[in-house]
Specification:
Two copies of one chain form a homodimer. The first copy, chain A, is mostly helical. Chain A has one domain: Orthogonal Bundle (Farnesyl Diphosphate Synthase). In chain A, about 75% of the residues lie in helices and about 0% in strands. The first copy, chain A, is built from 17 helices and two strands. A two-stranded antiparallel ribbon of chain A has the order 1-2. Chain A starts with a helix and ends with a helix. The model of chain A has no long low-confidence stretch (mean pLDDT about 95). At the A-B interface, helix 3, helix 5, helix 7 and helix 8 of A face helix 3, helix 5, helix 7 and helix 8 of B. Chains A, B: Keywords: Magnesium, Metal-binding, Transferase.
Chain lengths: ~325, ~325
């Protein structure tokens, strides 16, 4: 039986999800009309709300009694995620996200930068209300690391010598860290110290798998399924795992090797078709898929430290579902 | 005797200032080379460090015993200030600040947006370490209001009907609010609840005067003294107090009135010379100077609730010194 997002992931926390959604809408308040308009626009453009759902499942899996705290935390996670997307779209000069015009395209870069700042500040403002220092410390350190991951990605752009180790640092910061905050934060709220590490590991490995899959899809998907164009990463000279693996698996004296290096160094998609061919024929894509499966297996393994509940099963289903995008 | 910044403002907290400066440099740590390089660049480009000095004076004026907390708070204030400048320079597409190339000009917009985010996160990270909920709440709410003030300014660009009331809201958010955090934060740290309001009022009125003076200088200074070009605000169609007052003081059927309205609506400095003439002849500049003096008087009046010390005198001197820029 294939996994169904609504039935296998969302259903166990459907009521919590509704409460969280209400809290997001109530939490974004401002006397400044433009702040409201842009915030609503970007929060409503949200996708499946995977991060808050993960937070709610983790909170229930930990047996959190003050469940309204989890609703707040999940909403805060989604606001932070939205803020990073708004700034990412400025950074990447993106006009569309999930088929909708971005904030920078609808308004302008200025508005997008400042409303992103507002959402970060508002997320912290709501977090302070929960009055939990461990949680605050985790989040303040975590948001530093997220920004650092994003800058490391910029620093590595057009650098063909970027190692797999650096790639892993980048994706940990830009993607996995927020998933970690979502689940470890739930364990902190539940005051279940022994579940902090397993839940962090689950989310970290899940995030790694999720990003590796995303980077695979940049060389294999069509625009319809992904909502982004094939070759976007190559366009920007991003040394993602498919390219790093392709260089390792290709004879360094070959023309193929030079094509990959040059594409990263210069950016642009002039050689896209050739790069796709090399990535596939060298075995790089197979390697990436294997790595995504490994990370997913590690995520699920980490979950076993938690009691067996429908919520733990929901977290497992979410990890398995993410893998289906490349199968 | 004229007021001297070093002798009358800085001297009473000179040792604290050194400790604060060390803490800023130690506080900005990152394993990502680009984060370090940009952060150092922008923090070193700082000016007189008016905000942290104000924080240190306020802390001493309140008799704070754990003075190292004030060093940390002052450093956090400066980091937040720097973060907003970095994002402002992206928003305004500025190439120079205080005669030095901006982060967006030296690197690019992407780097500036992300390092600004890092500095905001790091400031909160250091703030969490102080473990004071009242302080955290004040700062998290305050940073929301700062972002809102900046967005309100954007929203009011090219709007000739912007009222003086809206102008005051803008400058409270974009300028005065951080001064308030610097001084009220010191009272919170010192656990002197009765000094919170006087110190917030001092800083709020000081900030208003400071920004009104800045807006006056945009129509009267030369580039050398200010480090920014005359007419910058007009260029961007910003309805600042000199223009708002000029419209109120000018016959609404006159050509002069239309010139001001059109200049705000379209932006640009085609009519700069005429606008300057109208702003001066209408009495608008006189009105602005009078308002700056009023705000300064209110700032100093608020200080009287504090015990008479060299630190309180330092805060008063700072307010008087700010006025000298237009005298």
């Amino acid at each position: 039986m294939t996994i169904d997002f609504k039935r296998d992931v969302l259903a166990p926390v459907a009521h919590d999800f509704t409460a969280m959604d209400t809290f997001i809408n109530e939490g974004i308040t401002s006397k400044v009309a433009l702040v409201m308009a842009v915030s609503k626009h970007v929060v409503e453009a949200g996708g499946k709300r995977m991060r808050p759902i993960m937070c709610l499942l983790a909170a229930r899996a930990c047996g959190l009694s003050k469940i309204e705290h989890a609703h707040h935390l999940a909403a805060i996670i989604e606001m932070l995620h939205t803020a990073t997307l708004v700034h990412d779209d400025v950074v990447d000069e993106s006009g569309l996200r999930r088929g909708r015009p971005t904030a920078n395209a609808t308004w302008n870069n200025q508005t997008a930068v400042l409303v992103g700042d507002f959402l970060i500040a508002r997320a912290f403002d709501l977090l302070v209300n929960i009055q939990n220092y461990d949680l605050l410390k985790d989040f303040s350190t975590g948001t530093c690391e997220i920004a650092e991951g994003e800058v490391l990605q910029l620093q590595s752009q057009h650098q063909p010598d970027t190692s797999e180790e650096t790639y892993l640092k980048i994706i940990h910061g830009k993607t996995s860290r927020l998933f970690e905050l979502a689940t470890e934060g739930a364990a902190i709220l539940a005051d279940q110290a022994e579940y902090r590490e397993p839940l962090r590991h689950y989310a970290g490995h899940f995030g790694n798998a999720f990003q590796i899959i995303d980077d695979i899809l940049d060389y294999t998907s069509d625009a319809e399924t992904l909502g982004k164009n094939i070759g976007d990463d190559l366009m920007e000279g991003k040394p993602t795992l498919p390219l790093i693996a392709a260089m390792r698996l290709t004879d360094h004296d070959s023309a193929q090797y030079q094509i990959i290096r040059r594409s990263i160094a210069t950016g642009g998609i002039a050689d896209l078709e050739q790069v796709i061919k090399i990535v596939k024929q060298s075995g790089a894509l197979d390697y990436c898929m294997q790595r995504a499966k490994q990370e997913t297996a590690l995520a699920i393994e980490a979950l076993q430290a938690l009691p067996e509940t429908e919520y733990r099963q929901g977290l497992q289903s979410l990890a398995e579902l993410a893998l289906e995008r490349i199968q």
